[in-house]
Amino acid sequence: MAQGGTRFNWRADGKFFGNSGNSEILDADLEVNVYVEKASRFFGVDATISGWVKVLCDRCLEELRLPVSTGFCLSVKFGENAETADAGDREIVMLPDGSQELDLSQFVYDYTCISLPMRRVHPEGECNPEALRYLNSEETAGAAPAAGSPFAALKDILK
Questions:
Q1: Of 21, 48, 75, 92, which residue is 20 to 30 A from 128 by alpha carbon distance?
Q2: Could you tell me the CA-to-CA distances from 117 to 22, 65, 121, 155, 156 in Å, in that order?
Q3: Model pTM score
């Protein structure tokens, strides 16, 4: 790459996450925009990721489409030892001298996954009604614990 900046754009879909071995993300349509600025001994990489991913709802186990809007900033340096200079809000990536490629797929995967909420549920009223009926049924909610269960002694606390 010549000195200065270069833009790269590509899409990450369900196949990308399937190849990553991720069982949580069922499908995706993400646009990845990367701006790389080359200086003498390092590259600055600024990436944005936007679109949606499809996961299972934690409540009803039906598919749920979640928006994704995240990004990352890297300082890519060459050599054996990391310099102690402050990189600010950038993550430092060290590559051996003479490296010609930087694979950003793991960064896209990681930053997408950590941008997802811990609790992934449909908005109120949009979950599968049959699943909710089962979850709220008296059979499951009021069932007494089995006699050998460690929770059997706790049933008296409720009274």
A1: 21
A2: 16, 12, 9, 33, 36
A3: 0.76
Instruction: Give the span between the Cα atoms of 90 and 35, in whole angstroms.
Output: 14
Q: How far apart are CA 105 and CA 59, in angstroms?
A: 30
Residue with tokens 């991913």: 53
Q: In 10 A of CB 96, how many CB atoms?
A: 8
Residue with tokens 């490296």: 99
Give residue limits of the domains in the chain. 4-141
Token pair, residue 136, equals: 């709220």
β-pair type (4-13, 63-78): unpaired
Greatest Cα-to-Cα distance within the chain, rounded to the nearest angstrom = 75
Block residue for tokens 């997408």: 112
- Other beta carbons within 10 angstroms of residue 94's beta carbon come to 14
pLDDT tens digits along 26-57 = 999 999 999 999 887 788 999 999 999 999 99
